[in-house]
Design a protein that fits this description.
This protein has 100 residues and is of the alpha/beta class. The chain is built from three helices and five strands.
C-alpha cells in the first residue's frame, strides 16, 4: 500500500521515524513511475492531499510551526497557498514526528 507523508519543504524525512509512526517494519520511498501511476502527477508536483488518491496521510507535527503552506497543484508551474491550520483540518491526516 502507498501512504502520503507531508512535511515542511526545508526539512528532510527520516524513514526510520516514519516507520515507527506508521507502525510498519518496511517502508521505502516510491519511485517516479509509481508516483505517476498512483497520482497522475510527476515527482514534485503531487498535491499533498492523499485522500484524493485514496492514500492514508501523515503530517509531521512541525508543519504546524508555519502560518501558511505552499504546495504544487498537480504541475510544476501552479501552486496553492493556504493557511496551515485550514490545510490540516481539511486533510485530517494522522500526525507524527518524522523529520530529521
Amino acid at each position: 500500500d502507498y501512504i502520503m507523508a507531508v512535511l515542511p519543504g526545508d526539512k528532510e524525512i527520516d524513514i526510520d521515524k516514519l516507520k515507527a509512526v506508521v507502525k510498519v517494519n518496511k517502508l521505502e520511498l516510491a519511485n517516479p513511475q509509481d508516483v505517476k501511476m498512483m497520482t497522475g502527477c510527476g515527482i514534485g508536483s503531487v498535491p499533498p492531499f492523499g485522500n484524493l488518491f485514496d492514500m492514508e496521510m501523515y503530517v509531521d507535527k512541525s508543519l504546524k510551526d508555519n502560518k501558511m503552506v505552499d504546495f504544487n497543484a498537480g504541475s510544476h508551474t501552479t501552486s496553492i497557498k493556504m493557511h496551515c491550520k485550514a490545510y490540516i483540518e481539511l486533510v485530517r491526516a494522522k500526525e507524527g514526528e518524522f523529520c530529521k
